[in-house]
């Protein structure tokens, strides 16, 4: 095995230690998966010391941005970007900066066109039940610079998914695929136009009518 191949294999093994939960997002202390991955990448760089320092600097900046991020979906995206930075073969600092900005930009764009989460479950899962539920596979959509460290099924479908995952989601039926992100909006928009309703406003009113649970 060549040194380059061995280095890549070592990096995969190193980051794989956290594959069930994803890269721990902290810089106090910096996780071994981060320092180990940065070192392995730096070993193959023309300027090992500068490359390593750049990766660690990018990681600290990334962690600071993560701490300031309140959106649950944006935090999931950021976790997936971190996983990609250390599971993939692209430059770590590049993924944590340029890649992160692109992933969050794509998430915001997807969010703007999204209908309420519950309606995706009502419509898409309703279709799935009519197509022999046990024989289909529902997969979340993905995008560049992101890698999920857990099965999507471990998060509630669809309110536990990011907007990008919902827009790109598919229901696989044999050799055919039903695109959730296209099908659901088309059905809902057609109903809105026919009956002069707004599902987003209706969802807000529905939520307002729900009883509020007091903190224990």
Notes on the structure:
- The chain is mostly helical and 216 residues long.
- 60% of the residues lie in helices and 6% in strands.
- It contains nine helices and three strands.
- The protein has a three-stranded antiparallel β-sheet.
- Strand 2 and strand 3 (176-179) form a beta hairpin.
- Helix 1 packs antiparallel against helix 2 (32-43), helix 2 (32-43) runs antiparallel to helix 3 and helix 4 packs antiparallel against helix 5.
- It is elongated, with a radius of gyration of 21 Å.
- Residues 1-20 have low confidence and may be disordered.
Highlighted features:
single chain, 216 residues, mainly alpha, 9 helices, 3 strands, 60% helix, disordered N terminus
Quick description:
The chain is mainly α. The chain has helices at residues 3-16, 32-43, 48-68, 72-87, 92-112, 117-129, 163-167, 180-195, 199-209; strands at 136-139, 170-173, 176-179.
Radius of gyration (Å): 21 Å
Number of helices: 9
The computed structural class is mainly alpha
Largest sheet: 3 strands, antiparallel
Q: What's the SSE pattern?
A: HHHHHHEHEEHH
The low-confidence runs, each spanning 5 or more residues with pLDDT under 50, are: 1-20
Q: Give the fraction of residues assigned to helices.
A: 55-70%
Q: Which percent band covers the strand fraction?
A: 5-15%
Q: Give the end-to-end Cα distance, rounded to a whole number of Å.
A: 59 Å
Query: Order of strands side by side in the largest beta sheet?
Result: 1-2-3
Q: What gross morphology would you assign?
A: elongated
The tally of strands reads 3
Mean pLDDT: 84
């Amino acid at each position: 095995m060549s040194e380059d191949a061995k280095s890549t294999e070592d990096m995969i093994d190193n980051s794989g230690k956290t594959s069930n939960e994803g890269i721990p997002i902290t810089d106090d202390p910096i996780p071994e998966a981060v320092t180990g991955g940065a070192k392995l990448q730096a070993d193959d760089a023309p300027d090992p010391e500068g490359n390593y320092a750049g990766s660690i600097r990018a990681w600290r900046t990334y962690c600071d941005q993560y701490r300031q991020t309140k959106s649950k979906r944006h935090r999931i995206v950021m976790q997936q970007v971190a996983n990609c930075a250390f599971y993939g073969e692209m430059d770590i600092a590049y993924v944590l900066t340029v890649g992160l900005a692109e992933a969050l930009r794509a998430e915001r764009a997807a969010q703007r066109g999204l209908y309420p989460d519950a309606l995706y479950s009502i419509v898409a899962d309703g279709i799935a039940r009519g197509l022999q539920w046990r024989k289909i596979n529902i997969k979340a959509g993905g995008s560049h610079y992101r890698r999920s460290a857990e099965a999507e099924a471990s998060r509630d479908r669809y309110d536990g998914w990011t907007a990008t995952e919902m827009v790109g989601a598919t229901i696989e039926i044999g050799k055919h695929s039903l695109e959730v992100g296209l099908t659901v909006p088309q059905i809902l928009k057609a109903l809105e136009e026919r009956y002069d309703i707004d599902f987003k406003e209706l969802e807000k009113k529905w939520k307002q009518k729900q009883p509020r649970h007091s903190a224990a």
